[in-house]
UniProtKB/TrEMBL annotation:
Protein name as it appears in the record: DEAD-domain-containing protein
Domain of life, per lineage: Eukaryota
High-level lineage: Eukaryota, Fungi, Dikarya, Ascomycota, Pezizomycotina
Length: 236
């Protein structure tokens, strides 16, 4: 009951959060849950990078995002924080199945995202898994059914959606495409299209890339609804 009240208060704070006010520069000024706040603190993240300051408030409010900012600008937290918060506010549990899917172009990047998720998500109770191949499809599938958050590569994820019964995506709340430009450059466009076909239409989608390429806006047109454009330009 107490817990429920806290979540309602948090939701209220998110709804009231003023997007037009001067951008926050610290995580502590954003309406975040206690588990996320503690996870960020324990990981020594206190100041927001530019892309985080611009994207996280919209992400928290459930908006679709098309974000472009160069490598090293902190895009990972720009999507992981809204992912954790959305599932927390929805009181997501193991019985709710898959709540968030994060697609990365390569195994290495997927592993990196997963490690950041484990760090900042350590005080949450969600289950999270990597779907990047390396194990048999069946072994992977057995674990998938119990996951709340998956970090995956497009080809492998599509294989599961097409071929195994281990995964139920009907409740999915958030889809993230990280390094969307590289996903396209590596020839995964049709895999991502096919993957998105499996997902519920009613969901939040965040798409991040290092560049603003024509190909990325094509992908955005397919998967984003009235997106907020976030672009961080290099200082000249
Ligand atoms: P990108 O995905 O844009 O290339 P990353 O999310 O990988 O960037 O972050 C790049 C580096 O910056 C990482 O070492 C990360 O730990 C660090 N970093 C990200 N956000 C912050 C922050 N708010 N404060 C301090 N360091 C940060
Ligand atoms: Mg990145």
């Amino acid at each position: 009951k107490r817990d429920q009240e806290d979540r309602e208060k948090l939701q209220h704070a998110v709804d009231e959060f003023d997007l037009k006010a001067e951008a926050s520069t610290k995580f502590s000024t954003l309406p975040l849950s206690q588990p996320t706040t503690s996870g960020l603190e324990a990981s020594h993240f206190s100041n927001l990078t530019d892309v985080q300051a611009q994207a996280i408030p919209f992400g928290l409010k459930g908006r679709d995002i098309l974000g472009a900012a160069k490598t090293g600008s902190g895009k990972t937290l720009a999507f992981l924080v809204p992912v954790l918060e959305k599932l927390y506010r929805a009181q997501w549990t193991e019985y709710d199945g898959l709540g968030a899917m994060i697609i990365s172009p390569t195994r290495e990047l997927a592993v990196q995202i997963f490690e950041v998720l484990r760090k900042i998500g350590r005080y949450h109770t969600f289950s999270a898994g990597l779907v990047i191949g390396g194990k048999s499809l069946r072994e992977e599938a057995e674990r998938l059914g119990r996951m709340n958050i998956l970090v995956c590569t497009p080809g492998r994820m599509l294989q599961h959606l097409d071929q195994t019964a281990g995964i139920d995506v009907d409740n999915l709340q958030i889809l993230v495409l990280d390094e969307a430009d590289r996903i396209m450059d590596m020839g995964f466009t049709s895999a991502v299209d096919a993957l998105v076909e499996h997902l519920p239409k009613e969901r939040q989608t965040m798409l991040f890339s290092a560049t603003q390429s024509k190909k990325v806006s094509d992908l955005a047109r397919l998967s984003l609804k009235d997106p907020e454009y976030v672009a961080v330009h290099e200082a000249s």
